[in-house]
């Protein structure tokens, strides 16, 4: 449980080290405004979530429910594979430069702005999720307010937006592949999670689903 709470921070350290030029006079040349902004925004999110993670990861039942292990273990597994594979994004940005033409400051600035919006969206959704998962499981009610009053899966929307931002910030083919793979996994997770929520909340979830879009208002 403790490792699950600190592993995101360890991952960020590894990702930063992927940018380092070990035998260069300027070892941190690629830890620039855009990559540095990405890591700073990610750190803000991780620090914000510490209390929620600490409480959740000390309860196996809550952890399984929140992560989806109880109804969709395969998506959790493949999501972990994608996260590890995404280290190639940072290696590409710092060393390989496979798509140099896409490393444009304007596109990177747009990507950083999208990533900032995504972090804010995830933090907003997590605030509401924290309230839900602090309750006893039998006392939980269907969330239809806050970000959940706009779309049914605001956290997943934030994750997709974050992946798009990362693709623009780091100008890496690996980031674009990760975005595509993540969208496929998100669609699978949404389908299984909605079936799970229908089992819990019954017809009230069907009524809620008819009045809200899944990820992006007016789009999907």
Question: Summary?
Answer:
The chain has 220 residues and is mainly alpha-helical. Helices cover 71% and strands 0% of the residues.
Provide an overview of this structure.
This protein is an all-alpha fold and 220 residues long. The chain has one domain (2-211). It contains ten helices and no strands. It has helices spanning 2-19, 33-48, 50-57, 60-67, 73-85, 87-96, 105-133, 154-170, 173-201, 203-211. Helix 2 runs parallel beside helix 7 (105-133). It starts with a helix and ends in a 9-residue tail after the last helix. The model has no long low-confidence stretch (mean pLDDT 91).
Counting DSSP E segments of at least 2 residues, the number of strands comes to 0
Q: Describe the global form.
A: globular
Major sheet characteristics: none
Beta-strand residue fraction: under 5%
Work out the helix count. Answer: 10
Radius of gyration: 18 Å
Order of helices and strands: HHHHHHHHHH
Helix content: over 70%
Instruction: Specify the structural class.
Output: mainly alpha
Give the uncertain stretches in residue-range form. none
- Measured between the Cα atoms of the first and last residue, the distance is 35 Å
Number of domains: 1
Chain-averaged pLDDT? 91
Please supply descriptive tags for the structure shown above.
71% helix
Layout of SSEs?
Elements: H1 2-19, H2 33-48, H3 50-57, H4 60-67, H5 73-85, H6 87-96, H7 105-133, H8 154-170, H9 173-201, H10 203-211
